[in-house]
Amino acid sequence: MLYYNLNNKKERVTFREAVTRGISSDMGLFMPEEIPSPGPDFFKKLPEMELPEIAFTIAGMYIGDEIPYRILKTICDESFNFPVVIKKIGPGKTVLELFHGPTAAFKDFGARFMSRCLGYFTSGDDRKSVVLVATSGDTGGAVADSFAGVDAVDVIILYPSGRISPLQENQLTTHGGNITALEITGTFDDCQQMVRETFTKLDTRNRIRLTSANSINIARLIPQSFYYYYAMSRSESTEPVLSVPSGNFGNLSAAVMAWRSGLKVKHFIASTNVNRVVPEYIRTGKYCPANTVMTIANAMDVGNPGNFVRLAQLFDNDHGKFISKISGYWFDDDRIRNHIWDEYQRSGYILDPHGAVASLGLESYIRDHPGAQGIFTATAHPAKFSEVVEPVIGERLTFPASLDRFLSGKKLSVPMNPGYQYLKEYLTERYHLQ
Ligand SMILES: *Cc1c(COP(=O)(O)O)cnc(C)c1O
């Protein structure tokens, strides 16, 4: 399988190149030449297959022999060694919990798989690998966790100062060692822009190998489809709708890729906070990136979603096709808080602010399409957002044991102004690029 550059469809690269480069030199995202289908036998067996086995089959189609099967099998077994939980919480309403990994956010799926692919492709390389990642909250923690202690790789995380939760900040800033946190006095979009410009402009003089760990990296995107095969095949309804809480739109793009490969999904719901460029695109046909607005579902505070181009491409950049399969709903902080309370009253289920957005999206869709049944994705453990959730439900939350180690520890961050030139100066000095 080859991958083409969305900015220049003539440029085709291998999976290895797409993963190790992250983004093309003209800032184009890589996209698989085709969406491969695993075939009817796979879908027949799917309800009995466990996640690592599903992952191995699907990843194999995208990667071919670029990673030997034996190694790919180990990568899948190690990456997905924690549960995916599915619970019915109301009529027509099922939650897909993706927060049982080591950093209690769904980003663990993508980060663990990507880091292992990258480790395979760069082992034996005499240049130092430097992973650059912009985070709106959870990506950084998941990437840091999967690379901590891997001394051959430096991880440099850019995060928007004051715009992530205290626990998220601890997850980025307390590792030390090969993990560096750059605290940017700007927004997530600023961080994303700095990373992208570095890829296209920085002359590394071949001293380091720069890679991106954002969902613009195809090796983070592909694994985010695996759990949808798992969940959909275990749904009560034969063709459920699926609501995905979206920010940079990697998770939804991956779900659409799974559908394009043959998975039955009746309809998708793009659920967002007030950063609503995609619901607005659905409504008007115009895509207008906007300034980022801070919300309590902060991992979705994205004004110019990096993966929108991929999502649009999956529908041949045709607005009519797009809206025939995806509806959009957005919600402000008050709606999100009220809904966390309502759902807690109704079913006892505790939502985090991101899961609450997805749950609201599903309810709105069911209201507009009576009789519909669906699954919504819960992307973070509510205890990760205890400062939002506890005052709403009036109860203390119990932290999953995996988060204990992030509750203490000394914060180490490097403050930085937004703008490519500052990151350039930092990297030039640190890696002697002059
Ligand atoms: C990253 C993130 C999202 C948004 O996912 P995208 O793939 O960027 O759309 C939603 N919820 C949580 C908790 C996240 O960390």
List the helices and strands and how they pair.
Layout: E1 3-5, E2 8-13, H1 15-21, E3 30-32, H2 40-45, H3 51-63, H4 69-79, E4 85-90, E5 93-97, H5 107-122, E6 128-134, H6 138-147, E7 153-160, H7 166-173, E8 179-184, H8 188-201, E9 208-212, H9 218-221, H10 226-233, E10 241-245, H11 250-260, E11 267-272, H12 277-284, H13 308-314, H14 319-325, E12 326-330, H15 333-347, H16 353-368, E13 374-378, H17 386-393, E14 414-416, H18 420-430
Parallel strand pairs: 5-13, 6-7, 6-9, 7-8, 8-14, 10-11, 10-13, 11-12
Antiparallel strand pairs: 1-2, 1-3, 4-5
Pyridoxal-5'-phosphate (PLP) binds at residues 105, 107, 137-138, 215, 245-251, 299-300, 354, 379-380.
Could you characterize what this model shows?
It is a single chain. With 434 residues, the chain is α/β, with parallel strands linked by helices. The protein has a domain at 84-106 and 220-393: Rossmann fold (3-Layer(aba) Sandwich). It is 41% helix and 17% strand. The protein is built from 18 helices and 14 strands. The chain has helices at 15-21, 40-45, 51-63, 69-79, 107-122, 138-147, 166-173, 188-201, 218-221, 226-233, 250-260, 277-284, 308-314, 319-325, 333-347, 353-368, 386-393, 420-430; strands at 3-5, 8-13, 30-32, 85-90, 93-97, 128-134, 153-160, 179-184, 208-212, 241-245, 267-272, 326-330, 374-378, 414-416. The strands form three sheets. A six-stranded mixed beta sheet has the order 4-5-13-10-11-12, with helices on both faces. A five-stranded parallel beta sheet has the order 9-6-7-8-14. Helix 6 links the parallel strand 6 and strand 7 (153-160). Helix 8 crosses helix 18 (420-430). The longest helix is centred in the N-terminal third of the chain and has 16 residues, at 107-122. The chain is globular. The structure holds pyridoxal-5'-phosphate (PLP). Pyridoxal-5'-phosphate binds at residues 105, 107, 137-138, 215, 245-251, 299-300, 354, 379-380. Pyridoxal-5'-phosphate (PLP) binds next to helix 11.
